[in-house]
Write a structure and sequence with these properties.
This protein is mostly helical and 52 residues long. 54% of the residues lie in helices and 0% in strands. The chain contains three helices and no strands. The radius of gyration is 10 Å and the shape is globular.
């Protein structure tokens, strides 16, 4: 897996872990928005990393 996809996957996991704890942390990390449920829609925050 490419470094970019690996980074995107890592950010996606961060999003899922932090969604209910502190959504603003995730928004600051990727400059995106994470929606509920996180496992299905966090990828919208990193569209340029291959998550569609």
């Amino acid at each position: 897996m490419s470094p970019v996809l690996e980074q995107g996957r890592h950010l996606l996991m961060l999003c899922e872990k932090r969604f209910t704890k502190n959504i603003h942390d995730f928004q600051q990390v990727v400059g995106g928005t994470c929606f509920h449920p996180p496992s299905r829609t966090c990828h919208h925050a990193v569209p340029d990393m291959g998550f569609t």
